[in-house]
Amino acid sequence: MQFRRLAELAVAPFFLPIASAILFIGLGDAVAGSYLTLFAVNQAHLSPLALGIFLTVLALSGIIISTAFGFWLDRTPSLAPLLLALLMTVVGYALLTVTTQYLLLLLIAALPLGTGAAAFPQLFALAKGHLDQISEPAAERGTAMMRATWSVAWAVGPALGALVITFFEFRGVFLTTAISAVLASAVIGFARVRAARRTMTADANQTPAHPTIRETGLAASSLTFFHMAMFMGSIALPIVATQKLGGTNADIGLIFSVCAFLEVLVMLTFVLRPSISGTRRWLSAGFVAFVLYFLVITWAPSVAILLLAQALRAIGIGFVGYHGISYIQVLMPDRVGSAATLFSNTANAGFLFAGLAAGGWAQLFGYRSMFLVCAVLSGLGLLMLYLQSRINVAVH
User: Fold this and answer.
1) 3-class DSSP state for residue 161?
2) How far is CA 284 from the centre of its chain?
3) Cβ neighbours for 267, distance < 8 A, ≥ 6 positions apart
4) Which of the residues 93, 209, 222, 274 could staple to 334 if both were Cys, CB 3.0 to 4.6 A apart?
């Protein structure tokens, strides 16, 4: 039975090429993402303020352009926004190999790199459009498989980046990311992937195609709080582990690799056993796991406890990372491009807010106290999810 379910994905129109493209994009993102800040500080010699501005421009540009591309895909289903995003990824990272001028770096962040951020939601939206035409379980399994593929890429990417930078420095890192985008484009092109034309049927039990602003706003706020906690925790964890608990740089790599591996296992459970009902319950469980994770590591006495706690982190990321995008897609069933983009933008916004808040908080109260902040943020996300569900019941 399980093999038959996987075979259903294998024969789904364009699923394997799209999943392969996600793997390449994820690898490139993981390789460059692991070293972009280090490049800005060590190679371009940016001050903390200049670095903050650079990362802010990158995040805001990604949000704005991804949103515009999501509307574009919904209005006129085509590969044009995806191919443009992939092209700009190649251009942006190629340009990083030839300049460290600050104004040029800001332009690169605002235009090609910001445009490249749209590739992730575009690929998910394209896959969703095709999978929906097969069956609802197929759509769920396919989404889980793609999220697992993304986690695999992030499990492998940092190690690949470490190998590349050892021999080819930052130029090699950015060229590797550019090549990954080229490979993703080639897969899409050779497979002649097309955008699915969506047809909606009236269903009295179906979530309305146009939810209220309060509904989508609370759902997006919930996921933004989650991602802000995730990124703030990732900023503080290496510093606490090495400076407070006596860990090594190798310990940090092991911690993040274990978490990524466990995320893949969590995602694969949804591939084999779809859970069409109870999406909000799975999301709630993910938020609770995150609250528990941050409370545990706040008082963790050793690196070993940090390592064991990654099981909770993987559950939180796995549940919310997968069911979050499904939840937004249920709220916006006739706008797959906008739904995938909205989910992606909650991560971009979480990254932006985490970067803005982490430095100031750590300066005043220390890095370890940031874990308590992350627990509170996760709790606020759970509260937003509860309020959204109450509004959904009241309105519908």
Assistant:
1) helix
2) 18
3) 144, 145, 147, 148, 151, 318, 321, 322
4) 209
Q: Say what the pTM is.
A: 0.79
Q: What is the rounded CA–CA span in Å between residue 362 and residue 156?
A: 30
Closest CA to 396 of 209, 202, 223, 222: 209
Q: What is the CA radius of gyration of the chain?
A: 20
Task: State how far the alpha carbon of 148 is from the alpha carbons of 26, 94, 219, 260, 270, in Å.
Answer: 11, 28, 23, 9, 10
Centre a 10 Å sphere on the Cβ of residue 53 and count the other Cβ atoms it contains. Answer: 16
CB 14 within 8 A of CB 196: no
Query: What single-letter amino acid sits at 192?
Result: R
Torsional sign, CA 360, 294, 216, 197: positive
pLDDT digits (tens, 9 = 90+) for 322-360: 888 878 877 887 777 788 888 889 998 998 898 788 777
Compute the half-sphere exposure of residue 70: CA atoms within 13 Å on the CB side of its CA.
26
Helices (H) and strands (E) in the chain, counts: 15, 0
Q: Could you give the CA distance from residue 55 to residue 60 in angstroms, rounded to a whole number?
A: 9
Task: Tell me if 366 sits within 8 A of 67, measured CB to CB.
Answer: no
Number of residues written out for the chain: 396
- The two tokens of residue 135 are 């069956």
Best CA proximity match to 153, nearest among 288, 306, 28, 13: 28
